[in-house]
Design a protein that fits this description.
46% of the residues lie in helices and 14% in strands. It has 380 residues and is of the alpha+beta class.
Length: 380
């Protein structure tokens, strides 16, 4: 994508905005508010604001941060308990904003971006990448396919993740004699860092091309089951069960029908792969063997989780996405299609490996992801 800028003098922030929009508009790379980008200019780190869309972000959508203060956070001792630690780290991160940025909230991954010495950082989690990071043999295969990349095992997001990434990056530098510029995070995605947007593009193309060559199966999203009168009637039933004014969308693609064939076949997509799946389509889809039990199953789900399911798989049909607004339902549908793609791609790397129950519970109750979910709801 670098040819876009040939002969054009761009500031760091203009270049950051341009490549953020470029990648953000690619539905194969970015869904909803996913992914983030950053740029360094002297002691300033420009980072995507939380809840902001890469596709439409403007220079004003980035938060200007003090790199010296961010670096000091990595040397500070925080409480060991989750809630106090993350609250203290969030307070310090908010205090690291430069004057004039008071009303903005930086990405939760700001500290991780600050660890890279390179000027530009691109963080994405497309399905093909997460087919690797959400796979049982992901780490081993990553080392084989990308010997110069760093693998970071699943861990609690926020400050703990930044500390772990710092450790892994320090280990890499000690072993290789150079700074890491590519990180694969288990159940999360990939970080790429370079001193130019052109180099970032080359790195991303290399990653995607390599994975594409190794993925033996593709998810079949072509239509298989048509939305007939019975399905339409059931969609209305689900919408009523969800709540007044809710919207329910049906998807009967071939891959959805295969996953919905039985609870066993649906197992790989009944647990979340990444934090984004939790934010946009809830942690656990509801599986129905038959539609007659929908009302009881819906009520039992709500009783267990404290909220209604956004995704409902039905044997023989496919799945339904339910939400308060059409946009939210469309987003939930997109994210569940993404989950199915990840499950299919993961077969090339030992099979699906969703997030652990402990990590899922942490994300569900984490204040930062709650903020993201609220921001997504407002956009809906």
């Amino acid at each position: 994508m670098g040819e876009k800028y040939e002969g054009v003098v761009c500031t760091v922030l203009e270049t950051l905005t341009a490549f953020s929009n470029f990648y953000g508009k690619n539905g194969e790379l970015v869904l909803a508010g996913g992914g983030n980008t950053s740029a360094k200019d002297g002691n300033v780190l420009y980072i995507k604001g939380s809840g902001t869309s890469l596709a439409t972000i403007t220079p004003e959508g980035f938060v200007a941060m003090d790199r010296t203060k961010l670096a000091a956070m990595m040397e500070k001792e925080y409480p060991t308990e989750d809630a106090p630690r993350e609250a203290a780290a969030l307070a310090d991160m908010m205090a690291s904003k430069l004057p004039g940025q008071e009303e903005k909230r930086p990405s939760v991954e700001t500290l991780l971006h600050a660890l890279f010495p390179m000027r530009y950082v691109l963080h994405l989690h497309p399905a093909m990448v997460n087919g690797l990071t959400c796979a049982r043999e992901g780490e081993a295969r990553m080392h084989a396919l990308f010997p110069d990349a760093v693998w970071v095992e699943i861990c609690k997001p926020g400050y703990i993740l930044a500390k772990l990434c710092k450790e892994r990056m320090s280990d890499y530098k000690a072993a290789k004699g150079r700074d890491a510029d590519m990180l694969f995070l288990q159940n999360h995605g990939v970080f790429l860092a370079a001193d130019s947007d052109v180099e970032l593009g080359k790195m991303l193309r290399h990653v995607l091309h390599t994975l594409q060559e190794n993925c033996t199966q593709q998810a079949d999203l072509t239509p298989a089951v048509a939305e007939d009168a019975q399905i339409c009637a059931f969609a209305k039933t689900l919408a009523k069960l969800y709540g007044a004014g809710a919207v329910c969308l049906f998807n009967g693609c071939r891959e959805a029908v295969r996953f919905a064939e039985s609870r066993e076949s649906a197992a790989p997509v009944l647990e979340p792969f990444t934090p984004d799946h939790i934010v946009y389509c809830k942690a656990h889809p509801l599986y129905l063997q038959d539609v007659e039990t929908a009302a009881q199953a819906f009520a039992a789900y709500r009783e267990k989780h404290g909220y209604a399911p956004k995704i409902v798989l039905v044997k023989g049909w496919g799945f339904f996405a339910v939400a308060d607004t059409e946009k939210q339902a469309q987003t939930a549908q997109l994210l569940f299609l993404d989950a199915m793609k990840i499950a299919v791609y993961s077969r090339a790397f030992g099979g699906a490996l969703p997030m652990t129950a402990q990590m899922t519970d942490f994300i569900v109750n984490w204040e930062v992801e709650a903020y993201r979910a609220k921001a997504a709801a407002k956009q809906g």
